[in-house]
User: What shape does this take?
Amino acid sequence: CSAQTIWVLLLLWLIGIVLGGFIGDYLGGITSLKWLAYGKSFGLTSPLVLDMGVVVIQFGLTIRFTIAGIIGMIIATFIYKKM
Assistant: This one.
């Protein structure tokens, strides 16, 4: 595997997670599909602040995995293997 193909796979995974998250949020309002929006968040709940007197920098990162996002990631892997 070359570095370029790994970047393509990572990009497809990111697209799958984002689209899956959107689909999960959209369809989560339907009672029978509510399980698609189920997920867990990881990361910093409050931002990390670096105050240097003149400049204040805030760092924050939260990642939310949902069932729909994981399904999107699996579909992205199948698309990658078909390429």
Remarks:
- Helices lie at 3-27, 67-82.
- The chain has a mean pLDDT of 90.
- The two ends are 13 Å apart (CA to CA).
- Strands lie at 39-43, 48-51, 56-59, 62-66.
